[in-house]
Amino acid sequence: MEPILEVKELSISFTQYSRGTMQTELPVIRSLSLTVAPGQVVAVVGSSGSGKSLLAHGILGILPYNSHRAGELFFLGQPLTQERMEQVRGKEMVLVPQGVTYLDPLMQVGPQLWKGSRDGTHRKRSRTALARYGLGEEVEGLYPFELSGGMARRVLIATAAMEQPRLVIADEPTPGLDARSARRVLGHFRELAEGGAGVLLITHDLELALTIAHRVAVFYAGETVEEAEASDFAEGRLRHPYTRALWNALPQNGFTPIPGTQPGPGEVGEGCPFAPRCPRQGPECLGKVPYMEWNGGRVRCLHPEGETV
Amino acid sequence: MKHRLIFTSKKLLRMALLLLGVSLAAFLLMCASPLDPLQTNVGQAALGTMSQEQLDQLEDYWGVNDPPLQRYLGWLGDFIRGDMGTSLLYRQPVGQVIGQRLQNSLWLMAFAWVVSGVLGLTLGVLAGANRGKLVDKAVRGYCLLLSSTPAFWLGLVLLVVFAVWLGWLPIGLSVPIGMDAASVTLSHRLYHAILPALTLSFTGVAGIAMHTREKMADIMESDYVLFARARGESARSIVLRHGLRNVILPAITLQFASISEIFGGSVLVEQVFSYPGLGQAAVNAGLGSDLPLLLGITVVSAAIVFGGNFIADLLYGVVDPRIRRGAARG
Ligand SMILES: Nc1ncnc2c1ncn2[C@@H]1O[C@H](COP(=O)(O)OP(=O)(O)O)[C@@H](O)[C@H]1O
Ligand SMILES: [Mg+2]
Question: A23-80 pLDDT, tens per residue?
Fold first, then answer.
């Protein structure tokens, strides 16, 4: 089956002006690869500041003006250029943002859903989308500040469901929700995938991601370090030491913290950014590390787990 | 509704207290100043020829030797009854002088206020929505130039170009010289107000434009504009639908806060154009030791400025759904 989205070695950097004319490039995302197939929920898991939101913005073509993007993107088999991004975003490719601040605080929900057109079809579609998430049409008359946290989240998902998206990008859709509401919100994304769309679920919460994702891409300091099937986690078939560390840090697996901290943008050299914290590191980890197929998934590591198996 | 009423009466009360404070402060300052109303009123020469007895009588009559607080309370009592005293310079009730002058100035200030508001908002929105681009640089350069140009100098330049060289517009005054009051028409007044009003509005534009630009640039970097872009809304639609809507609240504040600047500017501009407005009267009153008039003008201008802030607060309640609906619910 042709993948909906393919990202190959994406990198995103910022041009920064320090001291007048001195210009430096700050790489935030360096080698990011992932694939989303139809009907699949792919979770991108990484800690905060690792560049997850930038990934979403890079795919949608809404990066800030001082940024630069390189690498290959494919959407439905066709190269995804900036022009194509502008054509498909909001239609075949939708973003579900994190919270209520992404709604215009001075505009009622209805007009925001209709994006400025007042014709009957938009109204009908918004009614249907709201109803799908248990919201009545009176919600269209509310301002964002009048929505509860859970309602706001459902309104944001309704903006996506109003279109017929092939790809849904959800950027941290659950923080601030209690466990039950969070699971319900994630259930809505699963539903969208069951309708044939690809869902890219961006989150820092591995545990939550595993409850609905088919595949998981683990993201560290601007790189994808591993792509795995969701089932690999429970079955212990992990590859990258960072993935292992994330897994062990979960409450049910002993809450083992990882020593050290993730390097920030610009603090990474050529080698593996996880090496300083890695129990399996060797001197060769200071050199370039390729991204390779491994044990049914992909990994960016010279000493992945499972090599001796 | 009840909430709004309480809010409004609180604001009104605060305004009244502020006015009281302003009048008291102005009064005390004038008491402490070397201005001598007796001398102004009677004249230096006449004063010299009077006997000490006559002087004492006069001083008694004018209450010069009463303690300041007593004099202030006397003034306040009259003021509340609508009597601001008699102008020493114009030999007319202060209320009447201010009324006439304010009428002239209001044309000027209202025009300048509207023009600077509209122009400032437009330029600010354009620059903020296109930050870093050519439009933005042009607007910023223009504002920098304007804000570093003194109003009186700009007035003189306009005067030289449009009134002296080109002869298109009158050199000064608010009506044609020598015309009797009955035959002065609205177009005469407008014609005479053009240059001073333009000068006055130019000085306000820069501030409003730069502040609006800041706000607009913040809005363009907000989460909701990012999301609007992600949803495929066009740049035009984003500026018109989200940008303008959200810039309107700070714009209201700016616009009403600029009343005080316009007032301050009018003092200079009316001087340059010999325009018989309130600002000119204030200068005359100060130079001529006309204390009742000076005090009256101070209080009336303060009332207008505070009134502007008050209207801004009320407008907020109408425009901002968070206040409008929030108040309706709670
Ligand atoms: N406009 C920008 N200019 C420079 N650096 C930026 C900019 N936006 C984001 N970054 C950097 O990119 C990094 C990743 O940001 P983000 O994608 O928001 O992380 P995440 O969503 O994973 O928490 C941040 O650490 C930040 O320093
Ligand atoms: Mg983020």
Answer: 888 889 988 889 999 999 999 999 888 889 999 999 999 998 889 999 999 999 999 9
Candidates A60, A94, A143; nearest CB to B321: A143
The residue of chain A nearest to residue B247, with distances taken between CA atoms, is A106
CB contact under 8 A, A89 and B231: yes
CA distances from A99 to A102, A201, B196, B259 (A): 6, 15, 51, 39
Residues 6+ apart with CB under 8 A from A34: A5, A6, A7, A42, A44, A200, A217, A224, A227
Chain B hits for A104, CB-CB cut-off 8 Å, are 224, 228, 241-242, 245-246
Residue A48 near ligand 1, beta carbon < 6 Å? yes
Predicted confidence at residue B44, as pLDDT, reads 64
From the CA of A264, the nearest ligand is: 1
Instruction: Tell me the CA–centroid distance for residue A13 and ligand 1, in Å.
Output: 10
- Is A89 in the B-facing interface, judged by CB distances under 8 Å? yes
Question: What residues are paired with A216 via a beta bridge?
Answer: A43, A228
List, in order of start, the domains of chain B with CATH numbers.
2-32+86-176+184-214+248-329 (1.10.3720.10)
pLDDT tens string, chain A, 309 residues long: the values are 789 999 999 999 998 877 767 788 888 998 888 999 999 999 999 988 888 999 999 999 999 888 999 999 999 999 999 999 999 999 999 999 988 999 999 999 999 999 888 788 888 999 999 998 889 999 999 999 999 888 999 999 999 989 989 999 999 988 877 888 888 889 989 999 999 999 999 999 999 899 999 999 999 998 899 999 999 999 989 999 999 999 999 998 888 888 888 998 888 888 899 999 999 888 999 988 999 999 889 999 999 998 654
Cβ atoms within 10 Å, residue A220 = 26
Q: What ranges in B81-133 are assigned the alpha helix state H?
A: 94-129
DSSP character at residue A239? -
Q: Which helix (H) or strand (E) holds A294?
A: strand A292-294
Task: Show residues of chain B in contact with A95, CB under 8 Å.
Answer: 227, 230-231
Q: What is the model's pTM?
A: 0.85
Residue nearest to atom 17 of ligand 1 (CA): A51
Does the distance separating the beta carbons of B242 and A103 come in below 8 Å? no
Does A118 touch chain B if contact means CB atoms closer than 8 Å?
Answer: no
ipTM of the complex: 0.91
Alpha carbon of A46 to ligand 1 centroid (Å): 13
Q: CB–CB of A204/A51 below 8 Å?
A: no
Q: Please write the tens of the pLDDT for every residue from B282-293.
A: 888 888 778 888
CA–CA dist A5, B146 (Å, integer): 52
User: Residue B318's pLDDT is what?
Assistant: 85
Cα(B107) to centroid(ligand 2), Å: 53
DSSP-assigned letters across all residues of B273-297: TT--SHHHHHHHHHHTT-HHHHHHH
Beta-carbon contacts below 8 Å between A and B? 68
The answer to whether B230 contacts A89, with C-beta atoms less than 8 Å apart, is yes
- A53 pocket-lining for ligand 1 (C-beta < 6 Å): yes
* CA dist., res. B58 & res. A102, Å (int): 73
Q: Is B131:B214 a contact under the CB 8 Å cutoff?
A: no
